[in-house]
Amino acid sequence: GIWFVRFFAPWCNHCKKMIPAWESSATNLKGLIGVADVDGTVEKELVKRYNVHYYPSLFLFTNRRVFEYNGNREASSLTSFAITAKKAIDSGHNPSDCSFYMNVETIGGR
Question: Each residue of 35-51: pLDDT tens digit?
Fold first, then answer.
């Protein structure tokens, strides 16, 4: 499946300000794409693995690929990003062609 994941820290003001948009986007994506939070102060191995250098950091996880989202933090932009990525993936296209994606890694790639 596809997951849209937010890495955050409890002390991060930008993360706190983003909560309403993130929750709205999660509601809009329910049943289409999984949405999750990762507390970077707890999950330090994941922070290291995905090179998280700032909070919040947003990633789209697919079956074998991870893409970082660097776009607008408004609910409509977050939702549009995830839906556009899902359509690209479902149709066999590589979403990394979009300007707001950056391929982070291929999981278990050969």
Answer: 999 999 999 999 999 99
